[in-house]
Write a structure and sequence with these properties.
This protein is mostly helical. It contains 12 helices and no strands.
């Protein structure tokens, strides 16, 4: 697949996990590809803003039309109701389309993309001279090299007696990178319930998952919990909350 096709599939939200891996690798290693990506992303945002402005202007025109007809209409009661009903219905349809486009389409997906970043390995130091080739080390090597499926397999292979509490959080990260939102969500919720570290971070990533799933209510809930109880990403959480309110 060529680079332009990758860009097209990214913006149409149709990348497979393998294609997403290639895409992210190109962003990190190919300056020209990243430049083209930023250009198309910015262009898309400009177009969306312009379309939103046009819709808002159209709605304002309809509202003015209703007010004018309400004050000057001299026809019979039935005709008056019919015309105003038609205008109101048009406004409702436009508002419905506008709301759908803002929340369920690209704007919220862009918010997710702008705010999501895989959490770095801060718990297991990997050095080349390390001869201790444990399964946990293999798991984090896979994690750091972005082989997330292998990382999950290795995390699962660690015996119960050797499992550290932070493994649940990092396995959730791996699932999230593979677009397995269901399993990632369950694991982040487990981290919060067991309260063994990475609780604040789990609230943040749960908020992002709900954002990606177009669940505004639960996105707000997770962000408010994070803001009220933790300092982690507090400013980002407030900014995101403002944008979806």
């Amino acid at each position: 697949m060529n680079k332009q096709d990758l860009l097209y599939r990214y913006f149409s939200k149709s990348l497979t996990p393998n294609e997403e891996h290639v895409f992210e690798n190109l962003l990190n290693t190919d300056a020209e590809f990243k430049k083209q990506f930023e250009f198309e992303k910015n262009l898309k945002q400009v177009i969306q803003k312009e379309e939103s402005k046009k819709l808002k202007a159209k709605l304002q025109d309809f509202e003015k039309d209703i007010k004018t007809k309400t004050s000057s209409e001299k026809t019979t009661h039935s005709i008056f109701n019919y015309k105003n009903f038609a205008i109101a219905a048009t406004i409702a349809l436009l508002m419905g389309w506008f709301g759908y486009n803002t929340f369920f389409n690209t704007n919220y997906n862009d918010l997710y993309q702008d705010n999501f970043k895989v959490y770095p390995n801060t718990v297991y130091t990997i050095t080349r001279s390390d001869d201790n080739n444990t399964i946990e080390r293999q798991a984090f090597v896979a994690y750091e090299t972005e082989d997330y499926q292998l990382a999950i397999n290795k995390f699962n292979a660690i015996s119960e007696t050797e499992k550290n509490s932070y493994l649940t959080f990092y396995k959730a990260q791996a699932f999230l990178k593979l677009e397995n939102l269901k399993d990632a969500k369950l694991l982040f919720e487990e981290v919060i319930v067991k309260d063994r570290g990475f609780v604040a971070e789990s609230h943040w990533y749960l908020a992002l998952i709900y954002l990606k799933e177009n669940d505004k209510e639960n996105t707000r809930k997770q962000l408010k919990l994070l803001i009220s109880n933790f300092d982690y990403n507090k400013s980002k959480a407030k900014d995101l909350l403002d944008k979806i309110n």
